[in-house]
Amino acid sequence: MDITAAHRHLKKDSRLAPLLSKYSLSLSKISTDLFRDLLESIIGQQLSVKAASTIIKRFVALFPDPKNIKPKDILAQNADTLRSVGLSRQKISYLQSLSEFILSEKLVLASLKDLSDEAVIENLIQVKGIGRWTAEMILIFSLGREDVFSVGDLGLRTAVSKIYGVDREDKIKIENIAKKWSPYRSLASLYLWQSLDNK
């Protein structure tokens, strides 16, 4: 991403511009372990950042090589052992589904980088437990896609609602506001999240 060009474009929006001056952001690098990112995304669903972090640490400690967990390693784990680190039965089934999709090559993670944003989403949401929001987070934070805005993200809608005075449930109006930030909607999203001052 040409960060200078991106800032110049986003600053055309007079309501968004103050966020660019107030916050400094470092862009995330493209991930080298999509499987790990997806595991952590599933584990973290509907949990606070702190709770998710605790369970993820316990989860990875179950494996001989915590930095290199493979789909076969997930399927080899006993369900009771997985439950013991704080995972629900439902999330265990999601992790197993993801692992099975990859081992059967119904989902080829290495090919995602060559697909369009929408094709990546279509591939990922085949897996039980991965919805559009999770897929969009993977696009932004793991694949480094520059023009993604997740209207399903409550935080983003809340930030837009505060800044633009729109109802945060009016997804059509919010999506229309976000269109003006294209082709840098991912960067705009990072600033919007930052504006919420989440700890």
UniProtKB/TrEMBL annotation:
Gene3D superfamilies: 1.10.1670.40, Hypothetical protein, domain 2. One of its GO terms (molecular function) is DNA-7-methylguanine glycosylase activity. One of its GO terms (biological process) is base-excision repair, AP site formation. Keywords: DNA damage, DNA repair. Its EC number is 3.2.2.21. It catalyses: Hydrolysis of alkylated DNA, releasing 3-methyladenine, 3-methylguanine, 7-methylguanine and 7-methyladenine. One of its GO terms (cellular component) is cytoplasm. Pfam families: HhH-GPD. Residues 43-197 form the HhH-GPD domain. InterPro entries: Alkylbase_DNA_Glycosylase/TA, DNA_glycosylase, HhH-GPD_domain. Belongs to the alkylbase DNA glycosidase AlkA family. This is DNA-3-methyladenine glycosylase II. It comes from Candidatus Collierbacteria bacterium GW2011_GWB2_45_17.
